[in-house]
TrEMBL record, chains A, B:
Classification via InterPro entries: EvaA-like, EvaA-like_sf
Lineage summary: Bacteria, Bacillati, Actinomycetota, Actinomycetes, Kitasatosporales
Domain dTDP-4-dehydro-6-deoxy-alpha-D-glucopyranose 2,3-dehydratase stretches: 36-237, 274-475
Domain of life: Bacteria
Name listed for the protein in its UniProt record: NDP-hexose 2,3-dehydratase
Species per Swiss-Prot/TrEMBL record: Streptomyces albiflavescens
GO molecular function term, any single one: lyase activity
């Protein structure tokens, strides 16, 4: 009897696990959860579910302490995460050597979305989830966000709702890949990004609603609605171009170049092989070593009663927070959070090259990246970190993305990073259609790539950093 | 003016940088360096260039010492490599928790072959190179093996011959990727594997000869001739099937299944997407943490005057060696080496599945692997490590690969690992054509893959471990 033999899919031609995802304008609303109903439900959830987050001295943290010996900030259980010190030495961008606090959380968690077809249209089971660090407490979150301790039930504790869809051996996987998190704040952290399709009835829960991908895209373009975990999962979906009419017909030229960029059948400035060789060259050309060291030993940071802060006021602070739900739900706890000192910017420059949209990708070194650097947006930084530096030490294109020319913004929203670890860590996420204003030339650490090339790379771990993935997800709202 | 726009190559359809490499029987000899001339030259080099390697007490090492404080074995310059301690905790294969010595060498070196066409046939510039740990001192090595310190000239010192072909910005790259080294002995080590094509005259050097890939394949099938660095570079070449007649017509059925397995146009048991999802699942399913610790603190190993050895006589020893060239060349130095306690085995089971050759790949955890596990041969171990364990704790298929059925061995040679770090570290490398004797079924940590799928994955870093890559290179000798 012949074995089941799916014809091998060409990795670049059809990344992913075989289901076709089409960016479809027709599914920007849904009879299952009409937009009006969703908006009312989501507003209700936001009103009803608020955390009061108050800064407290580290000494008021319950269950957390600066450990004897190395001064690392740890939980008594040895679980969750810890804050340790890191020293980096690199010749990358003249950054030399520095020390910093960094989060260490070696577990692999699950970020997962359950999807199901209703009347032939794929819907995602989305959650109105509270996180203490979110600018607005409730954001639109995946079906499941679970640490390994959560889903293996090591600690006892309440079972994560719907986790069984992801741990079942019978699951139908549409996406399953390990992806990195913020390299500036996390030491080699990654999570498992999953999409699981079901056909059976799924028991309803008031904090969850079924939305089409088009409906998620609708709110992804709004400030601080769709959380980071949703964005990173959606970035792993190998979308195909829409067939039908599109929402944004403002720039048919942009749309056409985006359609071509998605397909992989049109030209690209570089072949896939050349892009991989470029990344090899980048890693081999630079020196980069790091070592963890006791948090008590890091230079350049001051440790007061209630924060660990950079001596020049740059980067971020480690703070302690008391978190209380101001609703009927009984919930109170304390925890450390990372609080960046200001709003950042993460922006891709985009332009058609021979009619195919390309994005300018930056191979960016980050302290905690799994392997020294990943592919980042053209610009990704906190501007304050560079204000006192001469122009040649500033990120390239910084002025251009902070003050884009009129009519060039294809995407512009303030989106925040993981609210469970980061406090008001939001960024201007932007996609800027620079057209001929920026030459289609590469530079040592910058290369122009098509959307299809990025979608192919994100099928593997550790190519696109989390900010680039947020923008890749956001790009699909720009039709 | 339109920009240069090579049509994007489908990553799976045409891995690599665009040149077509064909396994060609016609090039098993060459007018540039006929086999008879090569054999005579190589035998002469082996006779004339010998190291006497004598074990010495650690206290007789010059320039090396056990460092105050952590007891790590380090060089006074802080360069080369160091031996540190490592603790691993994992649920993988019931291995639990252990400590071991491990080599730490964070630099990225270059392993590179210069290639050039003579009369339309690609030739590789190969070196007769001495390494102290080689079972026979001289092995057939790439054009260049250089550490970063070598090629950046940090230490002054003699320039590596031909290094300029790899560091030139004008180089024509055919292969360029970062690949891992032995995860059991090295902590996250990788090297840059490169092939550079030249068209100009290359100045000759008596230690170097031009050989076709077919000629290298001829000697790769012999014991201990082709060194590990050559094998790992050749494993990155996306070979196409031969058109013409082939050497080994003994099994036309095997040959046909191998031709189909190379092409990527025939079926495979799994899609590329499913293989990546499987690897995600393997990594997420297992727990695996490690930390470096002082060499003086590792349990289970005994430290005597002249070796650090495992208490049960398993695994390997760290030894100290005095190395002297017994020829006119003046060379003498001392260095630590890793010496495995016996000869190992590294073997792929292979079988046709619906007429397409598949290899049974093992997702194997190794202490120093970059990300907990890589894809390994079906069996890869020192048998002594398992002799006292019950069968269910032994590697699957161990008996089968130690004592293969008659007529099933498609490749069988003793090949050694890097002789600059490892002393007589050789393995039975085997490819065993098991046919219907082994069912075409997967298991949690084992999956059947085509040769084309392996060649596609090896275009990226950190998928295939170095033993699997040696076998992938060796597979191309089995026509």
């Amino acid at each position: 009897m012949p074995l089941p033999m799916p014809e091998a899919l060409a990795a670049a031609g059809s990344p992913g696990l075989g289901r076709r995802f089409t960016v479809s304008a027709s599914a920007t609303d849904s009879p299952v959860t009409p937009n009006a109903e969703f908006d009312a439900w989501f507003a209700r959830k936001r009103r009803a579910n608020r955390f009061n987050v108050a800064r407290i001295p580290f000494s008021d943290l319950a269950g957390w302490r600066f450990r004897e010996g190395d001064g690392n900030l740890v939980h008594d259980s040895g679980k969750f995460f810890s804050v340790t010190g890191l020293e980096v030495n690199t010749d990358w961008q003249d950054r030399g050597s520095w020390m910093q606090p960094i989060l260490d959380q070696p577990e692999i968690g699950i970020l997962g979305i359950v999807v199901k077809e209703f009347d032939g249209v794929l819907h995602c089971l989305m959650q109105a989830k509270m996180e203490p660090g979110n600018p607005e407490t409730v954001q639109l979150s995946p079906t499941v966000q679970a640490t390994r301790s959560n889903y293996t039930g090591v600690h006892g504790g309440r079972r994560t709702t719907y986790i069984e869809y992801f741990t079942s051996s019978e699951r139908t996987l549409l996406v399953d890949s390990l992806q990195s998190e913020q390299g500036a704040w996390f030491l080699q952290k990654r999570n498992r990004n999953m999409i699981v399709e079901v056909t059976d009835d799924v028991p309803p829960h008031d904090n969850f609603r079924w939305l089409t991908i088009g409906q998620i895209h609708r709110v992804l373009a709004q400030d601080n609605v769709v959380n980071m975990d949703t964005r990173t999962i959606l970035s792993c979906v190998p979308f195909e171009a829409p067939n039908g009419p599109v929402r944004n017909a403002a720039s048919p030229e942009y749309r056409e170049s985006l359609v071509r960029s998605l397909s992989g059948r049109h030209g690209s400035l570089h072949t896939a092989g050349h892009l991989l060789a470029w990344l090899t060259d980048v890693k081999a050309r630079h020196s980069f070593t790091r070592r963890t060291l006791p948090l008590s030993k890091i230079d350049g940071w001051s440790h007061s009663d209630d924060e660990i802060a950079h001596d020049e006021g740059k980067h971020f602070k480690v703070i302690a927070a008391d978190v209380r739900a101001d609703t009927r739900e009984v919930a109170q706890w304390t925890q450390p959070l990372i609080a960046p000192v200001e709003r950042g910017v993460a922006a891709f420059l985009a332009r058609p090259i021979n009619g195919v949209l390309h994005l300018l990708v930056h191979a960016k070194a980050e302290a905690g990246a799994f392997d020294m650097c990943e592919l980042a947006p053209t610009v990704q930084c906190l501007p304050v970190n560079f204000r006192d530096l001469p122009v040649h030490r500033q990120p390239r294109y910084l002025d251009l993305v902070l003050d884009p020319a009129p009519g060039t913004l294809r995407f512009d929203a303030v989106l925040s990073e993981e609210g469970g670890r980061f406090h008001h860590a939001d960024n201007h996420y932007r996609i800027i259609d620079v057209g001929e204003d920026v030459p289609a030339q590469d530079d040592e650490d910058y290369h122009w790539m098509t959307v299809h090339q990025l979608m192919s790379l994100v099928q593997h771990s550790r190519y696109l950093n989390v900010q680039a993935r947020s923008l890749l997800a956001s790009l699909h709202t720009t039709w």
